[in-house]
Amino acid sequence: MIHNDVLRSVRYMLDISDAKVLDLIQLSGFAATKEDVAGWLKKDEEEGFVHLPDEAMAHFLDGLVVLKRGRDETRPLLPVELPVTNNVILKKLRVAFELKEDDLHAILKAADFPVSKPELSALFRKFGHNNYRPCGDQLLRNFLKGLTLRIRG
User: Fold this and answer.
1) Average pLDDT in the 111-127 region?
2) How far apart are CA 6 and CA 141, in angstroms?
3) What is the pLDDT of residues 73-104, one digit of tens each?
């Protein structure tokens, strides 16, 4: 899934401003400007649209985790996880919103996209594991839709 779509979805879900998006990206040490964020939030066909780079997306997701869960000051910042795949996005959102397996099933069911337990657990396996399964765009899109329904009502 295009990172810009994920960024717009999370922004809508949390009802946060462009400035807050910038704060989240900068929270984990990425240098971005208001103009960068404005370009990233534009639709694909709009003038001034800029693709969101992997590194900025990784920092946004890490900033979201810090916003929702807090930062452990006793530990140094972890390096960002690159490349940012749909599986990584799913993992970071799961951590940020403290979602358990039952929550994930309920979210996907609310979006009319039920997934079996083995299928879901395969998405969270480490790349290279025998049971690893890449997360498809449709699954991530429906997860974001279900999570938005859960948060915004």
Assistant:
1) 96
2) 8
3) 777 777 888 999 999 999 999 999 999 999 99
Structural domain includes residue 92: yes
Q: Is the N-terminal amide bond of 76 cis, ω within 30° of 0?
A: no
Query: Amino acid letter at 62?
Result: D
Rounded to whole angstroms, what are the CA distances from 51 to 88, 94, 132? 18, 24, 28
Rounded CA-CA distance 10/23 in Å is: 14
Q: Position 56: which residue type?
A: A
121 burial via Cβ count (<10 Å: 0-12, 13-18, 19+): middle
pTM of the complete model: 0.94
Domain extent, residue 124, equals 86-152
Listed residues 35, 69, 103: the one ending a domain: 69
